[in-house]
Design brief:
The chain is of the alpha/beta class. About 45% of the residues lie in helices and about 20% in strands. It has a single domain, classed as Glutaredoxin. It contains six helices and six strands, in the order H-E-H-E-H-E-H-E-H-E-E-H. The termini are far apart.
């Protein structure tokens, strides 16, 4: 009986690790470079597990991911969680909430350095969303909660839908 329980625990642990998303650490420069492909529209959301408005709006990005599957739209969720939460707490949160878009962890802490690289008007408050389409030189920044309807309108206009 003990052996069966031990094997079941090992299998469960393996399955959880297999489903866990790898969360790479990014700086502002690396993020902006990542979002520079001319043929893609990037939706980048800045959030944290401890930010209630952030958590509330995460479902909008899951909806977005599903709606634009197969189209040149890339959703990136950039976690501003503290270093102590990286990566275990963030992975646990992602798995619990069944978050589908790719998650990155923001590793910079000097707001005076990274904010101008993302958007000079940003106060640093979370949540915030940046939409970029390099080929059209399109840039939209929203500080605060954003809805899936608002995101859809912006994206459809950019895609010509």
């Amino acid at each position: 009986m003990k052996r069966t329980i031990f094997i079941a625990i090992l299998v469960l642990q393996y399955c959880l690790q297999a489903n866990a998303q790898n969360i790479p650490a990014y700086t502002a420069d690396a993020l902006m470079k990542r979002a520079s492909s001319a043929d893609t529209l990037y939706v980048i959301n800045f959030w944290a597990t401890w930010c209630l408005p952030c958590v509330k709006e995460l479902s909008a990005f899951d909806t977005l991911q599903a709606k634009y599957k197969g189209k040149p739209v890339k959703v990136l969720l950039v976690s501003f969680d503290f270093k102590e939460s990286y990566p275990q707490k963030i992975i646990g949160f992602i798995n619990k909430k069944k978050i589908q878009p790719e998650v990155l962890w923001f590793s910079e802490t000097d707001a005076n350095s990274f904010i101008p690289k993302i958007d000079s008007e940003w106060s640093g408050a979370l949540p915030a969303t940046l939409i970029l389409q390099p080929s059209k030189k399109f840039r939209f920044f929203n500080e605060g909660i954003i809805t899936s309807g608002m995101l859809g309108k912006i994206i459809d206009k950019q895609l010509g839908s």
